[in-house]
Design brief:
By secondary structure, this protein is an alpha/beta fold. The chain has 14 helices and 24 strands. The structure holds shikimate-3-phosphate (S3P).
């Protein structure tokens, strides 16, 4: 079903919100619980379809996963040896994280695993994970010589290797850590820049032989993994949509609670602060090796900036681009070619969607140049008809832009948000956002 949001702009957002559990940590918690020696208990897992894809793929690999009382998910880990050959193809849906993580997991297992996904995932690059897994001894094939899904993995008998990756990627690093935990000898992963480090933090908290050598180098040996008991903190990438909305809709004041405050994952807050945003983080301890806190934001005028995709700032770039469009003066996003191979080509889709705001916008091979409405451009545009392009973050970025316009707007293809944040529209309405949903 295709859903359209109708949004009346200009209403300030106020109140407190706990967004659902972090998607990236939820995928990892399910996988790390599945390979642990004993039962794990997980709560506050991400509620979107991507996390559900990981759960059902693990179940198809023979992992017993059950819903217990109070939203707790019980995972009966039986080590890597507890995984069994799936009877059918594993459908990873829209989730690159699921497909790449499971490629690494399957690479160590002495059976056949076939991984596929939807149209978007079938077009995303897989050589970055296939090539290093082959270098460890796994037999992996796929369309276009292994560059595209579906992937066919016949695993087992892995040997450690030193990988010098050409792209920094939390997904690829995790796949190689999962393979390294099943390999003989040492596996070393060296990245050109830091990527998200949840896997290392979680596995170290489970006593696994994973070593963070420096912010670009991870070392892994085979070894046992203790069960995991974790209430997943709120997703900082989902929080980003509310932070930007509160920053650019005058009169707003929000507190986002229990947020995963891993430094890389909240690096986008520093970009917004540099643009003039009024943001305070109130630390509230640590969980499974990760800092947690409340994020408080009040509206403030923003000025344009240069955003370089660095540690952790990947998934927040669409909504940072919206912040730039409402800032005073031009902005530029640089060094972000990875945006082209996400759930949509986000440089192309943002170019289309931001142009609806009446600002000057131009895509570059690895980023965007964005004129700011704060300097007067686009003043005649008080509403727009946005589309999601089948990409959850483009749909939510469109909604944030709509909130900051003075008049009514629509976002078509809003159903894409089910991938990471099905409750988005309800939560926005609970904070004063004037949003209604229509199905077609
Ligand atoms: C993720 C890493 C990032 C991010 C994705 C989730 C992860 O992708 O964009 O949403 O959980 O490791 P890459 O690994 O492709 O950079």
């Amino acid at each position: 079903m295709s859903t359209t949001w109708r949004i009346a702009g200009g209403a300030p957002l106020t109140g407190r919100l706990r967004v659902p559990g972090c998607k990236g940590v939820s995928h990892r918690a399910l996988v790390c619980a599945a390979i642990a020696d004993g039962p794990s208990r997980l709560s506050d897992l991400g509620t979107g379809r991507d996390v559900a894809s990981t759960r059902s793929a693990l179940a198809a690999l023979g992992v017993r996963i059950a819903d217990g009382p109070d939203g707790v998910v019980e995972v009966a880990g039986a080590g890597f040896a507890g995984l069994t050959e799936p009877a059918g193809v594993l459908d990873c849906g829209n989730s690159g994280t699921t497909l790449r993580f499971l490629a690494g997991l399957a690479a160590g297992r002495p059976f056949l695993t076939v991984l596929t996904g939807d149209g978007s995932l079938s077009g995303r690059p897989m050589a970055r994970v296939v090539d290093p897994l082959r270098a460890m001894g796994a037999h992996v094939d796929g369309r276009d010589g292994g560059r595209l899904a579906p992937l066919v993995v016949r695993g087992g008998d892995l040997h450690g290797a030193r990988h010098e990756l050409s792209v920094a990627s939390g997904q690829v690093k995790t796949a190689l850590v999962l393979a390294g935990l099943q390999a003989s000898g040492v596996t070393e992963i060296v990245e050109p820049a830091p990527s998200r480090d949840h896997t290392e933090r979680m596995l170290i908290s489970q006593g696994a032989p994973v070593e963070v050598v420096d912010d670009r180098t991870t070392r892994v040996r085979a070894g046992a993994i203790a069960p995991l008991h974790l209430a997943v903190p709120a997703d900082p990438s989902s929080v980003a949509f509310f932070v930007v909305a509160a920053a650019i809709v005058p009169g707003s004041h929000l507190v986002l609670t229990d947020v995963l405050c891993n430094p890389g994952r909240i690096a986008y807050l520093d970009v917004l602060r540099a643009m003039g945003a009024d943001i305070v983080v109130h630390p509230a301890g640590t969980r499974a090796g990760e800092p947690v806190g409340d994020v408080e934001v009040r509206s403030a005028p923003l000025t344009g900036t240069v955003i370089t995709s660095s540690e952790g700032i990947v998934d927040e770039l669409p909504v940072l681009a919206v912040a730039a469009a409402f800032a005073d003066g031009p902005s530029e996003i640089r060094d972000a070619a990875e945006l082209r191979v996400k759930e949509s080509d986000r440089i192309a889709t943002l170019e289309v969607e931001l142009a609806r705001l009446g600002v000057d916008v131009a895509g570059t091979p690895d980023g965007l140049r964005i004129g700011g409405r704060g300097s007067g451009s686009g003043a005649g545009v008080i509403g727009a008809a946005f589309t999601g392009h089948g990409d959850h973050r483009i749909a939510m970025a469109g909604a944030v832009a709509a909130l900051a316009l003075a008049g009514p707007s629509t976002v078509a293809g809003a159903d894409a948000v089910a991938i990471s944040y099905p409750e988005f529209a309800d939560h926005l309405a609970g904070l004063g956002g004037q949003i209604t949903e229509e199905g077609a």
